[in-house]
From TrEMBL:
InterPro entries: CTU1-like_ATP-bd, CTU1_C, Ncs6/Tuc1/Ctu1, Rossmann-like_a/b/a_fold, TilS/TtcA_N, tRNA_thiolation_TtcA_Ctu1, UPF0021_CS
Name assigned to this protein: Cytoplasmic tRNA 2-thiolation protein 1
Origin superkingdom: Eukaryota
Repeat is among the record's keywords: no
Domain Cytoplasmic tRNA 2-thiolation protein 1 C-terminal: 328-358
Keyword terms: ATP-binding, Cytoplasm, Nucleotide-binding, RNA-binding, Transferase, tRNA processing, tRNA-binding
Function: Plays a central role in 2-thiolation of mcm(5)S(2)U at tRNA wobble positions of tRNA(Lys), tRNA(Glu) and tRNA(Gln). Directly binds tRNAs and probably acts by catalyzing adenylation of tRNAs, an intermediate required for 2-thiolation. It is unclear whether it acts as a sulfurtransferase that transfers sulfur from thiocarboxylated URM1 onto the uridine of tRNAs at wobble position. Prior mcm(5) tRNA modification by the elongator complex is required for 2-thiolation. May also be involved in protein urmylation.
Organism placement in taxonomy: Eukaryota, Fungi, Dikarya, Ascomycota, Saccharomycotina
EC number: 2.7.7.-
The organism of origin for this protein: Wickerhamomyces ciferrii (strain ATCC 14091 / BCRC 22168 / CBS 111 / JCM 3599 / NBRC 0793 / NRRL Y-1031 F-60-10)
Gene: NCS6
Length: 381
């Protein structure tokens, strides 16, 4: 500090180093701290999350799911920084998905391409159009905007897997932050989706149908702090929202959480903490057998029905047919799938049928345009 700069008053000092002027009120705990201490605590907390959860091992190659938005930009920057600072010994590659959303993804991909140069990291871009022969714009024009995020989510998941597999990488790291995680916990809680609720706070996930694992080093990082970090570090990121807004229920849950955060900032971590301690009660599952089980136990020959009855809390039951072994391949696209046909192919099949239906209806009569609109309105997915 130069001799001409007035010394800050004691009450203005950083609560951590007690020597520099506090510039930031930390959204996470309302602590007043200086910029350098903010960088330090923010980076150290992420490092601790990585180490405590053993997210990486030396020599591992990881793909950062990079969208050009604030979360993934800060993630790529910080992972590179921490990798060098703490010698994780990991190799980082940027992996981007081009969903084909004009005016949104094309601009954000331009940001990722600049990040590639700025951080000197290799970049791989995988597009929906190349993989599925459908862009998101085409999907929305065929199926409407209402379920756009459902389609996009399923297709992105597989696209990330395929992109990583192409790179010979089996670990995708994403920029999901504490707000996203708390929002998901709340959403699953509100709609009674207990199976998802139990898994919604897992930091490292792997699915039996995919060899690619995923992790979220920002699990405990607040969105507001990520934005502050990007702002003070002058990182180059893209901040426009997707043209197809998130589904209404998620949007409402987000609002609810923002309102809760305004009166109790710790609620984001508190919700995650609650989610972490949420364990499903053992389900009442009974194996159902036919009355006279014959000697041969195959379903076609009348052996035990390969079904389980799950008795739900409200007394209703659901039948879970087994039969497809995890690790199977999709009959249509050949990609790993625990079902006969993977989810992406199922959605695409529906789209193809609708496209055909629309084109037939369109040629049938002179008021074709009105009919197409009607047909689109009636479609359900
Ligand atoms: S908001 Fe929905 S449609 Fe847009 S990129 Fe996200 S998931 Fe895809
Ligand atoms: Zn300080
Ligand atoms: Zn498939």
């Amino acid at each position: 500090m130069s001799s001409t700069t007035p010394r800050p008053k004691l009450s203005q000092l950083c609560e951590l180093c007690h020597c520099r002027k506090a510039m930031i009120k930390r959204p996470k705990n309302l602590q007043k701290i200086c910029k350098l201490c903010f960088y330090n605590v923010f980076e150290t907390e992420i490092h601790n999350t990585i180490v405590n959860n053993k997210l990486f091992y030396p020599g591992e190659r990881i793909a950062v799911g990079a969208s050009g938005g604030k979360d993934s930009t800060v993630l790529a920057y910080i992972l590179k920084l921490l990798n060098e600072r703490y010698n994780y010994g990991v190799e980082i590659v940027l992996l981007s998905i081009d969903e084909g959303i004009v005016g949104y993804r094309d601009d954000s991909l331009a940001t990722v391409k600049r990040n590639k140069e700025q951080y000197n990291l290799p970049l791989e871009i995988v597009s929906y159009k190349d993989l599925y022969n459908w862009s998101m714009d085409e999907i929305v024009s065929c199926a409407g905007i209402r379920n756009s995020c459902t389609y996009c989510g399923v297709l992105r998941r597989q696209a990330l897997d395929r992109g990583a597999a192409k790179l010979g990488i089996n670990h995708v790291v994403t920029g999901h932050n504490a707000d996203d995680m708390a929002e998901t916990v709340l959403m699953n809680l509100l709609r009674g989706d207990v199976a998802r609720l139990e898994k919604s706070t897992t930091i490292m996930t792997s699915s039996s149908g995919s060899p690619i694992k995923r992790s979220k080093p920002f699990k405990y990082s607040y969105q507001k702090e990520i934005v502050l970090y990007a702002h003070y570090k002058k990182l180059d990121y893209f901040s426009t929202e997707c043209t197809y807004a998130p589904e209404a229920f998620r949007g409402t849950t987000r609002e609810l959480m923002k309102n809760l955060e305004a009166i109790r900032p710790s609620c984001i971590i508190d919700i995650i903490h609650s989610g972490e301690n949420f364990v499903l009660r053992e389900k009442k599952i009974r194996q159902q057998f036919r009355k006279n089980p014959p000697k041969q136990s195959t379903e076609s020959k009348g052996g035990p029905i390969n079904e389980e009855i799950e008795v739900r809390a409200d007394g209703s039951i659901s039948l879970n047919k087994k039969g497809f072994v995890d690790g199977n391949r999709c009959e249509k696209c050949g990609y790993l799938s625990s079902n006969k046909i993977c989810k992406a192919c199922m959605l695409l099949e529906g789209l193809e049928m609708n496209r055909a239906k629309i084109s037939i209806d369109n040629n049938e009569s002179i008021d074709g345009a009105a009919k197409v609109v009607r047909t689109l309105e009636q479609l359900t997915f």
